[in-house]
Design goal:
The protein is α+β, with helices and mostly antiparallel strands. The chain is built from three helices and six strands, in the order H-E-E-E-E-H-E-E-H. A hairpin with a 4-residue loop joins strand 3 (31-38) and strand 4 (43-52).
């Protein structure tokens, strides 16, 4: 997938986007997001800031890590620059339109469900911890 194609897909999904170099800022279903891509490295990521790490309550980080194993699909929880993020990271070369749309949706769901269900979608891979 090219950066131009990604921008067209996102532009069709959201009311407004702002591009600054290889970073694109937008809101999807009222969730702030950023797309960052590097065509020479064949990588892209869509991320959404959730909460400052210093504001996490006891057990939240562990639940997020368990969700990465059981409830999160292609989007994951991550920590960078003192923040917890929901993130979808994928190679550009085999990124399809459907997977991009799904990744955006999953990042939004993971953002909204942080602190509650900790999921990026309806699918749960079993295991005792995943059932809690």
């Amino acid at each position: 997938m090219t950066s131009e194609r990604m921008l067209k897909i996102i532009d069709a999904l959201v009311p407004e986007l702002q591009q600054q170099g290889n970073a694109v800022f937008f809101e999807y279903e009222e969730v702030p997001m950023m797309l960052v891509y590097d065509e020479s490295a064949d990588r892209m990521r869509i991320v959404s800031p959730i909460i400052e790490v210093s504001r996490l309550e006891e057990g939240m980080l562990e639940k997020a890590m368990q969700a990465n194993f059981h409830q999160a699909l292609d989007a994951r929880y991550a920590i960078s620059e003192g923040l917890v993020w929901s993130a979808f990271i994928h190679p550009l070369s085999d990124l399809s339109s459907e997977l991009l749309r799904s990744g955006i949706h999953q990042v939004a769901v993971a953002h909204v469900t942080f602190g509650g269900q900790y999921t990026s979608g309806a699918l749960v891979f079993g295991g005792e911890e995943g059932q809690r």
